[in-house]
Design a protein that fits this description.
It is built from 1 helix and no strands. The protein has one helix at 4-8. The longest helix is centred in the first third of the chain and has 5 residues, at 4-8. It is extended and about 55 Å long. It starts with a helix and ends in a 60-residue tail after the last helix. Bound molecules: zinc ion (ZN). Zinc ion binds at residues 29, 31, 34, 36, 46-47, 49-50. Zinc ion is lined by residues 29, 31, 34, 36, 46-47, 49-50.
């Protein structure tokens, strides 16, 4: 048993500036039917999947349309 492992990752920046504004907790995505909980640091009202942002296209994978 060694005690060295804790000292390796024992340093954590605790003195972070409290400039980051937080938002209400317990919010959920505004997208209809989506119950994804939003982080209180997320200033959007939708989850990352539904937020109006540039969604990277999935490359190489085509949905199996009509596989049924
Ligand atoms: Zn959502």
């Amino acid at each position: 048993m060694t005690n060295n492992s804790s000292s390796i990752r024992g340093y954590r920046p605790q003195g972070l500036p409290r400039a980051s504004k937080t938002y209400a907790e317990g919010r959920v995505c505004a997208h209809e039917g989506c119950e994804t909980r939003l982080s209180k640091y997320n200033r959007r009202d939708k989850c990352w999947g539904h937020a109006e942002m540039k969604v990277p296209r999935l490359r190489g994978r085509k949905p199996a349309a009509g596989s049924a």
